[in-house]
Design a protein that fits this description.
The chain is an all-alpha fold and about 240 residues long. The protein has helices spanning about 30-50, 60-80, 85-100, 115-135, 155-165, 170-200, 205-240; strands at about 20, 25. The protein has one domain (about 5-240). It is built from seven helices and two strands, in the order E-E-H-H-H-H-H-H-H. The protein has a two-stranded antiparallel sheet. Helix 1 packs across helix 2 and helix 6 (about 170-200) runs antiparallel to helix 7 (about 205-240). It is globular. The relative contact order is 0.13.
Length: about 240
């Protein structure tokens, strides 16, 4: 009997139970891989920035390419006003990317396959961007909900649509990442189950699909981190420049 493909998403406690009032704040497998991802980022960029040689080694090259990639993404999307927020966008992109990539290793845990994780990230971005918008523009930030050139008759309807669209940002941002990671890993587990069930002779076709799907899922893991970061830049652009 094939294993349930959803068991890979189970969160379980590691170590003793820790309670804070009614809340269970015990260390879990999800917590472990968030810590591992964060430590991996710190180690790579610490070693990558230690020696700034003219001929960079692989770690330095990775650090420099990552820095340049995110810097260009911010400049192209949100402009020069967003440069003070580079550290946040860079940290966000690398954290999501490393969590996605660690989840591709067998017997690990994909942190971003859980809606609570992606929603907390998205909600933090939404609240932060909204605060930045009001700090920069005061109540003038509300002009974001009034697109230019709209006929007066349609304005009430358009404003309501714009407000709903704005408030749905954390939902769409979190669901997009969570759904893609969960769907991809579920498909990989299903095809892996077919390979085991059908054996060596009959399992070559699902095995081929599994190999192709693994390559596709690695690409998706990078793209979803990129999409998460670039949408954050777009929201930041709205807050800083009121472009609509």
């Amino acid at each position: 009997m094939a294993a349930n493909p959803m068991t890979q998403f189970e969160v379980y406690r590691i170590g003793p139970e820790i309670k804070l009032g009614a809340f269970d704040i015990s260390f879990t497998n999800a917590s472990l891989f968030m810590v591992i991802s964060s430590l991996a980022i710190l180690i790579i960029f610490n070693f990558g920035s230690k020696k700034n040689s003219i001929l960079p080694n692989k770690i330095q090259l990775l650090a420099e390419l990552s820095y340049t990639f995110v810097s260009k993404m911010i400049s192209d999307t949100a402009g020069s006003k967003a440069k003070p927020y580079f550290s946040f966008i860079f940290s966000l992109f690398m954290f999501v990317l490393f969590c996605n990539m660690f989840g591709m290793i067998p017997y690990t845990f994909t942190v971003t396959s859980h809606i609570i994780v992606t929603f907390i990230l998205a909600a933090f971005i939404f609240i932060s961007v909204t605060i930045i918008g009001f700090v920069k523009h005061g109540f003038g930030y509300l002009r974001l909900f009034v697109p230019s050139g709209v006929p007066v008759v349609l304005l009430p309807l358009i404003v309501v649509i714009e407000i709903i669209s704005y408030l749905s940002r954390p939902i769409s941002l979190s669901v997009r990442l969570f759904a893609n990671m969960m769907a991809g890993h579920t498909m990989m587990k299903v095809f892996g189950g077919f390979v085991i069930s059908l054996g060596i002779i009959g399992g070559w076709l699902p095995l081929s699909f599994s190999v192709a799907l693994t390559g596709l899922e690695i690409l998706v893991a990078f793209l979803q981190a990129y999409v998460f970061a670039i949408l954050t830049c777009i929201y930041l652009n709205d807050a800083l420049n009121l472009h609509h």
